[in-house]
């Protein structure tokens, strides 16, 4: 295929401008075209970046920076995506009218993108239902099942940088409200490309859209509150929405469940797509919870609960006098093990069977908890599109602050229900005169210390990630941090019945484990390190596991540098 020239790209850009319904991105692209025509090399390179590739639609849907062109998120790309999804649903409809429910968060352009999706899908013959206002992603995931729709679309980029947005797709029917997986992603992507190649956005018919009743939100609140234990004590809690959409729904759930209204991080409580107080609106990022810690110190809080901007993730912090801030954010693995243990105990008390599940990069401690309680365990590829499909699922988590505590209600991670479940645990412990820190000690004493760490390398050139993965495959290390490598499993070939995935699992002598994979949603290479210690006192177990993880982390940093 011949290489595109500057003139080719200018022609593509002008055709894009002609079909773009957004005046802001039309003007942006027109200015770049004018500069490129005038011989501006930077503008020509910008056009090449925008038009020589296209944002790929996959199991994570679409996600990228808001700007003009097929390699960015914008109203043209979203409309094409909606038309492609509609064609996919109609193809599978067997003569019935398919349906979709569409939600949106508080990010830039979220509502406009959501209306485009709903109107284009309605114009194609799909019954389109728009949630009544900006709401958390878990409410949309719930609505797919509650309304029994064929599909759901959530407009969000979760915890990505402020100028990003995305389109996340769920399927009803046999998929039971889970996110799409292969081969549906490729089939939808093929329909989207056909639309992009044969039809302009101005030619796509638009139809009438229904607005979902408030009863959908009421039902989510009611069913989520029902998982909580009535509090026998009221821990002092600080809550932050991280400039997202979680607070209104979280407040209603807490009140319905009988919990006091927490103290708030007021500067972060209202939706604001600029995310003015954080560099990245992700509770995992350094500094993101500084305002939460300050509010917790002022309130003398026992617990900090944080949601990310679309409230599908949960972060927890507890008092820790050994830190400068006075509080420590628990790792996603620590929260996942505590919640999983809580679910396992309840299942045992009720005589229920089922499965605890986590992603392959999450703590192996969940398997120990499952086996100790006579429950099944499933290890899945990363993402709740896989975790939610584990047979007999009682609870699922991934270390990136994602937890599913109520799979009968929805099939995606939910930071609101997880927050309420964790608060229930804290309240029960408080009534017994104990704390979350005490519970963590109890977990180590009973199951062992499962220590973990992560190396995350953000890149501007994605080829760097591919190069590191290729080098590790071609020149596998004999040892990591002085610990001998037992074997390396390349999940690209399919291992343990898992679908092929670009992941390397390095198993070390003594049972420690390293996972290496490209991020599915961000330009990052991620390395996950896990080690366990089961001998000695609680303090000795923690020291042994932490020291081993630190050695392995140092070795991996050298390997992926």
UniProtKB/TrEMBL annotation:
One GO MF term attached to the UniProt entry: isomerase activity
Recorded family membership: Belongs to the phosphohexose mutase family.
Pfam families named in the record: PGM_PMM_I (PF02878), PGM_PMM_II (PF02879), PGM_PMM_III (PF02880), PGM_PMM_IV (PF00408)
Record's keyword annotation contains Cytoplasm: no
Listed name of the protein: Phospho-sugar mutase
UniProt keyword annotations, A-Z: Isomerase, Magnesium, Metal-binding, Phosphoprotein
Keyword Hydrolase attributed: no
